[in-house]
Amino acid sequence: MPVNAKTEDIEAFVAVVDTGSFSRASELLGQQVAKVSRAVGRLEGVLDVTLLNRTTRRLELTEEGLVYLQYARDSLNLLERGEEALRLLNQKPSGLLRVDAASPFVLHQITPLIGEFREAYPEIKLDITSHDNIIDLLEHKTDIAIRIGDLSDSNLHAKTLGRSALHIVASPEYLASSNVDVALSSLGKHRLIGFSSSASLNRWPLSEEVKLNFDLKASSGETIRQLCLAG
């Protein structure tokens, strides 16, 4: 059975769903809003269903749109993989690769490997950014994001790189200068350093729930690391 839907129309539909609006989808695709709107309308005409309910304030997938979305994603991903396979047959990997990770991971895990990576893949240009909180990959135009924890967005694909246990730490100078009480109830008596940007990053590996009061906060994980080392 022939496929009547055009790939560019399917791509426009998925972009609108992922970004939440026609205007943001047009920015992502580098097209005019009217062209994106026509593409989605054309796709609905070919399929003879309404995929999106449109109001002045929001877009909402219809039941048919929700069913079609997964097939649309799978088809685009398959086509992309096919094009990539053909490119790799005749040339080395090339282009811009945008990677995002927390600042300590960038500095201490990624940076030492950059030289070896560039030697192996000289045609790839790297754009490395640092965010300690969860970001919207589409909004930040990021190809790969490295994070700790479970994947919350089912539209993304994740691969486990490794496992790392969480620890409660203090600098040797702080431990030497303070009368350290290791009881959980005494945590409130210590100078605690935490994240200011995301409450989820301030969940410590404790055996029972304890209210943590941070008298010093920072948005960067590397800043927090250096503050801790400084005592």
From TrEMBL:
Annotated signal peptide: none
Pfam families: HTH_1, LysR_substrate
HTH lysR-type domain mapped to chain residues: 1-62
GO terms assigned for molecular function: DNA-binding transcription factor activity; sequence-specific DNA binding
Keyword line: DNA-binding, Transcription, Transcription regulation
PROSITE patterns cross-referenced by the UniProt entry: HTH_LYSR
GO biological process, one term: DNA-templated transcription
SUPFAM superfamilies: Periplasmic binding protein-like II, Winged helix' DNA-binding domain
Highest taxon in the source lineage: Bacteria
Similarity comment text for this entry: Belongs to the LysR transcriptional regulatory family.
Protein name: LysR family transcriptional regulator
Originating organism: Alteromonas naphthalenivorans
